[in-house]
Specification:
Order of helices and strands: EHEHEEEHEHEHEHHEHHHEHEEH
Number of strands: 12
CATH class of the largest domain: Alpha Beta
Number of domains: 2
Bound molecules: 6-O-phosphono-beta-D-fructofuranose
Strand content: 15-25%
Shape: globular
């Protein structure tokens, strides 16, 4: 029996470990595994990669994904400079390859697409992967732990140079919509101020904390900032546009507010430099900016990510063997759990203001700029 597998969305360390676990378990049980390249594009444009058992040797510790990946969606495939709905072609290709099931490894976008394909009648099993840790209904996802180590190590390294020069060090950490990576590495790295999307900041308050530290004889400060961190003013504007979008009566108005929202919340690499310049102006303290960027998605998977990928991959293969479809294999209290795709797609797991990490950080004197 043929089973398809793909990786979609942003890459991260641990994807190959998951492919290996799925592959070894399924080929060991007599299945034939077919890799689809470049995320859902592989199914849309029929780009395949045979995955004989020999493929799974030597990839456990290798970062990235041997299948490659894209963010393309089945119903929004880039083709000749425009976007095309290729969902029915995907169904045709699935059937032409005689697939019993398709295993999709990915994050939020991947799960929305997986649900769409399930609704079109495909047998789907998914594995959670995201360094942002923002997938609903699972205690963890492949990639987060490795990225957390990278970010924490970077904060550790910044401490000595910050101290030597008595500077404010802003460090931008990935997380467009969720602050887990910034919060976790900030707490583990002993940050002084942590800015995340879930807790809008007041710049004057941030500056006050930094000046107060300097006044107390702590002339340097480490400030991890999530990519998606927003000021109070920005968060009010976002809420206003979201309301207008949701209440818009015409399609045209809805599209207009949606576009304005996208413009306001899109990833901007100059944002952190603007923030740094403003803080330097407000505090009079020399400020430097570091952007960790894709370093957080590279390298060898951590031990925890290898274990998670192996656990999730083996369970996904068992789902195929038991014909248990339409589910994400989740992590729950150290074990695996099966969650209907409907409960995951379109949902986001974000930091809550009362999360223990937030509470502990506050107890340690960390400011969130609120
Ligand atoms: O979704 C994971 C993520 O790493 C986010 O944290 C980040 O905002 C985004 O991907 C970056 O995407 P890309 O690699 O496409 O620039």
């Amino acid at each position: 029996m043929n089973v398809g597998i793909l990786t979609a969305g942003g890459d991260c360390p641990g994807l190959n470990a998951a492919i290996r676990a799925v592959g070894k378990t399924l080929t060991g049980a007599g299945y034939n595994l077919i890799g689809f390249r470049d995320g859902y594009e592989g199914l849309a444009f029929d780009r395949t990669m045979p995955l004989p058992p020999s493929t799974f040797s030597g990839i456990l510790t290798v970062g990235g994904t041997i299948l490659h990946t894209t963010r393309s969606k089945p119903n929004k495939m880039p083709l000749d400079g425009r976007y095309v709905d290729m969902s029915s072609t995907i169904v045709e290709n699935y059937n032409r390859h005689g697939l019993e099931c398709l295993i999709c490894i990915g994050g939020g976008g991947t799960h929305k697409s997986a649900l769409l394909l399930k609704e079109l009648g495909l047998n789907i099993v998914t594995i959670p992967k995201t360094i942002d840790n923002d997938l609903a209904m699972t205690d963890g996802s492949i990639g987060f732990d490795t990225a957390l180590d990278v970010a924490t190590n970077a904060i550790d390294s910044l401490h000595s140079t910050a101290g030597s020069h008595k500077r404010i060090m802003l460090v931008e950490i990935m997380g467009h919509r969720a602050g887990w990576l910034t919060l976790g590495s900030g707490l583990a790295g002993g940050a002084d101020v942590i800015l995340i999307p879930e807790i809008p900041y007041d710049l004057e308050k941030v500056a006050k904390v930094l000046k107060m530290r300097a006044g107390e004889g702590k002339p340097f400060s480490i400030v991890p900032v999530a990519e998606g961190a927003v000021s109070v003013e920005e968060s009010i504007e976002i809420a206003r546009l979201e309301k207008l979008r949701d209440e818009a009566e015409s399609k045209k108005d809805r599209a207009l507010y949606k576009a304005q929202l996208e413009e306001l919340t899109k990833l901007r690499y100059d944002r952190i430099f603007e923030l740094g310049a403003k803080l330097e102006g407000l505090t009079g303290l020399e400020t430097r900016v570091t952007i960790l960027g894709h370093l957080q998605r590279g390298g060898t998977p951590s031990t925890v990510d290898r274990l998670r990928a192996t656990q999730l991959g083996c369970e996904a293969a068992r789902c195929v063997i038991r014909k248990r479809y339409g589910v994400m294999v989740a992590l729950k209290n150290g074990a695996t759990d099966l969650v209907p795709l409907e409960d995951v797609a379109g949902k986001r797991h974000v930091v809550t203001p009362d999360h223990p990490w937030v509470q502990d950080a506050r107890k340690l004197g960390v400011s969130f700029g609120d």
